[in-house]
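Dear colleagues,

As part of the handover before I leave the project, I'm documenting each prediction I ran so the next person doesn't have to rerun anything. This entry is a single chain, and its sequence is reproduced below.
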Amino acid sequence: MNKTIIIAEAGVNHNGNIALAKQLIDVAADAGVDYVKFQTFKADKLVSKSAKQAEYQKKNLGNSTEDSQYNMLKKLELSEDMHKDLLGYANQKGVKFLSTGFDEESVDFLENLGIDLFKIPSGELTNYLYLKHIAPKGKPIVISTGMASLGEIEDALNVLREGGAKLEDVTVLHCNTDYPTKYEDVNLNAMLTIQQSFKIDIGYSDHTLGIEVPIAAVALGAKVIEKHFTLDRNMPGPDHKASLEPAELIAMVSAIRNIEKALSGDGRKEPTESELINKSVARKSIHLKESISSGELIDVSKLEMKRPGDGISPMDLPRVIGRKLNSDLDAGVKLEWKHLQ
């Protein structure tokens, strides 16, 4: 069975608090995800002090006067010691630690921490130097494509390949960068377009409310699912409103694992062992509608189709019509081949 990699995106929903971050790890571990992911950045390297917040950030923060993206992100940084603490805690809880580095220095730090893969966020898809820095590192790469055109994805993949990355180790996640994403903006079929265009593993990074779309993505062939989660959607912060609460994360993981089981067959259409025991119960056989004497010709008016289905199949009706019985039979008898001349 091909297992979908599920990344539970804690992101900045720790609000800069190490205790909250550990609670998020607890939730991710309890849900049975593969990775719990945070974000690694220094506000000074990520954003200029004049940069404004995105509309969804201002709305979710409910702050009409403070619109500095720098000030918002400065409060959400995780220190190097915090990273090491969270990595150890995740290992203790049995869930893999992951983080997205937003600059080359952060990527190197995460590499030194020993993370399994590099996650490239949508905002860095067009960052040439960043892509060139990750390409030769020899680890699997998962890249989100929010806000991107197919041409931009092609350009990014070319940079990665030319820098030494093997495209068989790259998974491209379809994504919409709006928080929350409206269902009509998901365009999930675009994930298949990415797969067909680049012959590459695909996945989906979800920002919709609820769990339906990532489950559908798995049914369509997503190899990786990324989904934001929080302890409580009512907490202050830019991403809580578009995140799953703990019970929803558990439900999503359970549903994805069930979908994997449903897709694990060999594709041949034939009865399973579990349904063979119901075959005779659910199907019908040819029964006598009225009494028929020995030697009497059988016509369809004297027959009826009833359960159980362990006698002559109704599909064999043409082979029965016009035959004669070799003995008298009463109405209601289930017809068998031995009854026929």
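The radius of gyration is 30 Å. The chain has a mean pLDDT of 95.

All the best with the project,
I.
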